[in-house]
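3.2 Worked example (two chains)
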Amino acid sequence: MAECASAGWWKAHVIGSAKPDGARGRIVLIDDDPLFRESLAANLEEADFRVTSFADGQTALAELTDTAAADLVLLDWRMPEMNGIEVLRRLRRQGVEIPVMFLTVLSDQLFEEAALLGGAVDFIEKSRSFTILLKRVSLILDGAKSRASDDGTSAASETIRRGRLTVNVKTKRAFWGDKPVDLTLAEFEVVRRLGERAGEDIGYRELYDQVHGEGFLAGEGDTGYRTNVRALIKRLRQKFRDVDPEFDQISNYPGFGYRWERGNADGE
């Protein structure tokens, strides 16, 4: 059953003719509502993104075979045959680490938390304005490009080592001992920040900004972003424990944030 947005921004904001040159990035849109899909694609193309649209998850999965296929996926939740969260899970099982943003009419926090725990980088309601959606898309893509341009400026900056943790900044890979830890891009950026400043308490807001860009708003109220950070840290801990059941390096400073604990093996 197709989702219907509760506001008409996606009709009203179709302006001019599409410009599919895609200078700002490549977006894959997966939504079974043809009117919404067509209107949003036109808006994004007018904003200078290249958009490829799919009406169902199965077809999209057949095309999204590697991370180079796109820069961002915009994903509906309620779709026939295969819902959005299952599409996300299958992408990750296939080793496809393209950032995924859910764009849905669902507003319950349980859905948002499930999306973030599943590896999505963001969750936004269809009722939000196109301006807000565009800002969030830009923050995700421009932030990733900025971090990529900062990487590898020197050989010394390409690898971070903290005890058993090794972070390769250039390849966006993290290892615990000699075992790779399967992280999304968002998870990697948080591990990178925690590892760079091991032994320091890092606030919820700073960790959230590391993923989404400074000033990005999410969740309910002024501190709603904390829920997203808690969900991400919970997922991170589990992924490291999948490699090492005794992993306990990430500590919580209640009311403030988290820290990566220094071990005796750090040599610092």
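3.2.1 Second chain
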Amino acid sequence: MTLQDLIFDVSLYQWIKISEDEELFQSIKRCGAVVEGYNPYREVESTFVIIKGLGNTHVENPYDRGRKRVPETRFDSYADTLVKEPSNSFLVLKCKRYEDLFYIFFQVDVDNDRFRKVGQNPSVADFHLAKVKKYTKYLGQDRRKEFTKAIGLYANGIGIGSFVYLRRVFESLIFDAGNKLIREGVLSQDDFYPKHMDEKIEAAKSELPDFLVANKSIYGILSKGVHELSEEECLSYFDVVKKGIEMILDEIIEKEQKEKSKNALSSSIATVVGKIKK
């Protein structure tokens, strides 16, 4: 797991083994670590730096540049306490581009060799929701809201519920493709609706993104999550499945943009040909 994953993608209340991610744990104990990510306040990609780690007492004030700062690497006795007993603390990130401050609260349970996020502002959902807006045209308002609900539930440590909404979003892509082919007379309703989901995907594959057809097992993961997996398992698999759905949607957008570019270029070529013939 990277620092970027921890800050922008990992939901609250997921325990992380210190021994398995020692380098990551050390990076959040002190100042100076730099990470790339999305600033939801400004709706842009940016670079962030930790200006207060779990073992630091000093937080740089970007609006108070006249006073002498305590060196960012200074630790006090809290740093020793942190690694000896269960503790709660927080780190502060600063956006280097706009100087916005972000806060992440951690519980550190060294006795059991683990730590986890227990609070965050902005939340994981905030980092992702603005990006989801670009899919509204392709999902519709209702499905886009379900996508954001899935992200919001995940951000608050609710795994199974988040899978329910992700599955609805995934299903909608299949049904939209099938219904389009039915309207065009390529498929009949009997060729599509009675089938299992993997068969529906096969029947509608001419209208579906290649990535979805090649990774139709995503639906199986989602269904298993809804019916069989634990909250913890759903949380651990959420990001992979969400990114799979985003890849499918990005492929739809890319195909549309490519078609628009082709049509525009064809029109320009026709214009040039028309002028040459005159």
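3.3 Remarks
The two ends are 64 Å apart (CA to CA).
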